[in-house]
Amino acid sequence: MGAPKQKWTSEEEEALRRGVLKHGAGKWRTIQKDPEFSPVLSSRSNIDLKDKWRNLSFSASGLGSRDKLRVPRPKAPSSSPSPSPQLLLLSAPNNVAEASPPEDCEKSPQDDKTPSPKFSMILEALDELKEPNGSEVATICNFIEQRHEVQPNFRRLLCAKLRRLIGVNKVEKIDKSYKLTDSYAKRALAPMKDPSLKKKDSAKSSKAAKGVGQLSPALDAAEAAAMKVADAEAKSHLANEHMMEVERIGKMAEETESLLELASELYERCSRGEALTILQVAHREF
DNA sequence: ATAGGGTTACAC
DNA sequence: GTGTAACCCTAT
């Protein structure tokens, strides 16, 4: 019994994108049930939607294979030849995840939730190899094989794993090589090493104005400069996103405040025995 | 129901 | 062989 794979059509893809625009990523069931999309997505489960979105996010995050998109893209030839920047912005849940998550400060010291046994191996390998331009799968694989007993299909697993890590911005792919993301490396590696023997940070920070600190000391000046530029670019981009986010949050805060006032007014009057609706109060107040 | 890891099928 | 898309399984 061969279950012939059911490739996604561009219509389905489009429906999924619009569904996410409308309901947000993560509301797969809602999207799937929405009468607007259910005709197109009838043969897809909510899990299928999730998986497909995951794939779309990978390719949209620009990492790895944007240039050699081999996916036949018979996009609507007439009206929207280009995916429109909105979609790209929206389809980068990973960027948001990279920017916002207080993830690491949540961990309790001892309950350091090991991400997954294999992930720590990869982390270790990429850290120790210290290749500024990343390490090839074979290199990583070798490294890990030397330290751990691995299963025969390990390499394959490793590929899949790396790919997923790219999806969550913990790893980036440069040509054929993989390396830890700057931002993630700093957060993940710092607490990993013995606090006693990693005090040379201060010495380094004098010449490298932070940002490329964790790289091999033998780095060429040219390479270092290139890295800095790339880093700076990435940072300015991020900064921009952060600005927008801050603005948005500010607005939300205002609205929240108004709502709070409204709520307390409502509460006060209700507790006095008055029976009224939120609309009545809102009307008086605004 | 969703998120994430793992597996299988396919294209290059 | 390698990378990717679709599918499957499990924990939360």
UniProtKB/TrEMBL annotation:
Species whose genome carries this gene: Triticum turgidum subsp. durum (Durum wheat)
Bias-annotated ranges (Basic and acidic residues): 104-115
Keyword Mitochondrion on entry: no
Domain HTH myb-type: 1-60
Protein name: MYB transcription factor
Stored CDD domains: SANT_TRF
Assigned GO CC terms: chromosome, telomeric region; nucleolus; nucleosome
Matches recorded under Pfam families: Linker_histone, Myb_DNA-binding
One GO BP annotation of this record: nucleosome assembly
Record-linked SMART domains: H15, SANT
Domain of life per record: Eukaryota
